[in-house]
Amino acid sequence: MTDQRPQPVERELPTEEAHDLISLVRELIEREIRPNAAEEEAAGRFPRELFALLSRSGLLGLVYPEEFGGGDQPYEVYLQVLEELAAARLTVGLGVSVHTLACHALAHYGSKEQIAEHLPAMLGGGLLGAYCLSEPSSGSDAAGLTTRAAREGDGWTLTGSKAWITHGGIADFYTVMTRTGPDRTRGITAFLVPGDAPGLSAAAPERKMGMKGSPTAQVHLEDVHVPDARRIGEEGQGFAIALSALDAGRLGIAACSIGLAQAALDEALAYTAQRRQFGHPVADFQGLRFMLADMATQIEAGRALYLAAARLRDAGRPFSKQAAMAKLFCTDTAMKVTTDAVQLLGGYGYTADFPVERYMREAKVLQIVEGTNQIQRVVIARHLAGPESR
Q1: Catalytic residues, which ones?
Q2: Beta strand 276-277 with 280-281: parallel, antiparallel or unpaired?
Q3: pLDDT band at 5, cuts 50/70/90?
Q4: Is the per-residue pLDDT at 277 higher than 80?
């Protein structure tokens, strides 16, 4: 890797406070994240102590109310923080996005008593969250979940398995969607389950092609008792809660994707500026210059798309279609840009001595998580043409 690095992204931010926040995040990245990112990813180490620092620094609750330990920041600021974190290490950016997603149900649908009791610790108390919707047999068909919650005395007994859970096995709390009735969408209920609840366990982490530092595992619930005070929202409201969280979560994935793509472009720019062939830097050759220009254009377009969706959300306007568009475009951009970065570095791009091969492996999962890009196209088409006729 070369020491020559392009200038930081010039950001349009709504307040001076937001500019100060980005500056603080960049300082934290250079001090705490970037120096160890490659080594820790190669070793498959999750930086739990770093997430404790992020929690103390207020970066795990940026979009939530200040009175409960949050940052009261708009989504357009939060997402740009995510982009910065993901550019330094995707495990960190995606981890913050998943934690924010895990807090969404309680923060938006919990009772005043529930929020006061649990949210401060979730946002600033060093805790780490996980979001449990997918199952071994229900991924894209989220309404097909079979994990059950049965009433028992003053609470519920949860039984089933969840799959592809980021932070599975290390989270302090799990937001779990369960079946409490026969109706596909109106028979689902959300619960806040402690990570140390008796009967809750995790399988060994999945062996993945990328993001090896971020544990992904099945989570098993065997007669896990949860008091009714940990039910979030009304009985049967869980699917609506899940969809609401996913709309916001897709914007997090979009921002992380652009951060990853930006990191790949920065590395390609630095390399092509110093690598010489035929007596010239390879950045002088038109074919490579055009690749760099296309990569930068795609990144700028993706950034504009996710920020436009975020500003709709901040204004209280519908943004589901735009969130799906942002997730689709930004993750496809990350895959294309990281692949092109490997090509621009030639044989060196295919080695672990440079980070672009890791970026390319990591980009692939972004096209899959939080709704595959095929599902995003289904969502967008429904907004445009209405539901499919059956």
Answers
A1: 370
A2: antiparallel
A3: low
A4: yes
Angstrom distance (rounded) from CA 293 to CA 271: 15
- Contact between 144 and 155 (Cβ < 8 Å): no
SS3 of residue 221 by DSSP: strand
| Least confident segment among 4-8, 127-131, 149-153 | 4-8
The band of 301, judged by pLDDT with boundaries at 50, 70 and 90, is very high
Measured from the Cβ of residue 290, the count of other Cβ atoms closer than 10 Å reads: 10
Q: How far apart are CA 198 and CA 218, in angstroms?
A: 16
CA distance 192 to 155: 12
> For residues 165 and 21, what is the distance between their CA atoms, to the nearest angstrom?
30
**Cα angle for residues 57, 63, 67 (degrees, 5° grid):** 75
The predicted pLDDT at position 1 comes to: 41
Q: Across-strand partners of 160?
A: 221
Q: Residue 312: helix, strand or coil by DSSP?
A: helix
What residue type is assigned to position 92 of the chain?
A: V
Q: Which two tokens stand for residue 8?
A: 């930081």
Q: What angle do CA 246, 252, 255 make, to 5 degrees?
A: 145
H runs (alpha helix) in the chain: 16-28, 37-43, 48-56, 75-88, 90-109, 112-124, 238-274, 286-314, 320-344, 356-366, 373-385
Lowest mean pLDDT segment, chosen from 6-10, 101-105, 317-321:
6-10
Residue 4 pLDDT level (bands cut at 50, 70, 90): low
Q: Tell me which residue has tokens 């220009």.
A: 293
Nearest to 190 by CA among 152, 220, 228: 228
The answer to whether 63 and 70 are in contact (CB under 8 A) is yes
Residues 380, 326: Cα–Cα separation, whole Å: 10
Mean pLDDT of all residues in 91-118: 98
Taking residue 132's Cβ as centre, other Cβ atoms within 10 Å add up to 28
Distance CA(93)–CA(88), nearest Å, equals 8
Residue 281 parent element (H or E): strand 280-281
The mean predicted confidence, pLDDT, of the chain is 96
What residues pair up with 177 in beta bridges, in sequence order?
Answer: 190
